Amino acid sequence: MTTDGVPRPTLLLVHGAWHGSWCWSPLTAVLNARGRRTRTVDLPSAGREAGVQDDARAVLDALRRIDGPAVVVAHSYGGIPVTQAAAQAGNVERIVYLAAYQLDAGESLLGFHGAPVPPAPRGFQAVPDNPAAMFYGDVPDVEAAEAVARLVPQSTRSFSDSLTEAAWHTVPSTYVVCEYDQALPPAHQEGLAARSEAVHRIGSGHSPFLSMPAQLGALLADITDA
Fold first, then answer.
1. Domain extent listing, the chain
2. CATH class entry, domain 10-225
3. Please, which residues bridge with residue 39 across strands?
4. Residue by residue, what is the 3-state secondary structure of 104-145?
5. Residues of the chain with pLDDT under 50
6. Distance (Å, rounded) from C-alpha 115 to C-alpha 125?
């Protein structure tokens, strides 16, 4: 509870492609120490053949299990199913896009990057080459190696599926630009961030929840308290 007796929202943390809920552990420890309640979800497209709608259902199920208001923090690809799911949930106070794809209805990840969308996508996208540099360039070497070992193939369909709804038209949103990101270039993030009501910047690579969880936790606490 806050000092004025109003319940603080629960933060639902939604990971990106190739990852899992394990990646949030350092950040959840920081947020919990600050008195914030957190939940995580594992998206089925990481390791299984599943699409955006499957991931959105997993997010929506997680939101429905939260008693009270929620703020959803979506990282990278996770912004896509969150954008779909939050349009159908009634308890989302805000979406925080963390170096994430804040797409509109009719858009897909591949389409955003100008890549052709296969008519019947199947199979998986392998973990990218040199993921340590792409995802964890500012993470200590030992922790980066541990994270790389936990990455799994990502369903191709999740990159091809288009959104049918975009929650940020009706749900307040905040964008956090990761200024030294090697996975989703900051210039792309700035373009996406124009769709949000508020924009913050953090001097990190793609994964500040691993490289600077204390700073990110403080920023998320400020955003949710505001």
1. 10-225
2. alpha beta
3. 12
4. CCCCCHHHHCCCCCCCCCCCEECCCCCHHHHHHCCCCHHHHH
5. 1, 3
6. 14
